[in-house]
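Sample intake sheet
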Amino acid sequence: MEIERKFTIKKLPEDLDRYPFYHIEQAYLNTSPVVRVRKEDEEYYLTYKGSGMLAREEHNLALNKESYYHLREKADGNIISKMRYRIPLDHPAFCKGFPPPPEDYSLTIELDIFDPPFAPLILAEVEFGSKEAAEAFVPPDWFSEDVTYRQEYHNSYMAMQNLS
């Protein structure tokens, strides 16, 4: 089960280059349910995602390079390309009343900087172990709008937009 919230951001972290990153390219074979192929640097996946915005079923299967490019040719819509930075968020904040996590608890912010034609879009995603934690999460100051429930910020929706 994938449980994540998605945000626009106010500004990029100043020390962004110190975090691990990789390039992602993904193409959609279907959008309901979501079936996509993804290339992360030199790793390849086929992903199935069930319905939902905050929480949904997700399954990943490894592909080889040849299978990825074969399936990519069959994809509909736009191919999405972006840089993803993995930024640790130590000691994340949660709303009052939510049980405090262990002292060493941390989350990971996945910061996506989109390539054209979606640039200058930048989104931050944070995955959680439960819906309750996701709903109680207090985002860092450099996050802006919570767009978790706005379909226009979901990659599968973006892939199907006519950009001409």
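Comment: The domain at 2-159 is CATH 2.40.320.10 (Hypothetical Protein Pfu-838710-001). The first helix runs from residue 65 to 72.
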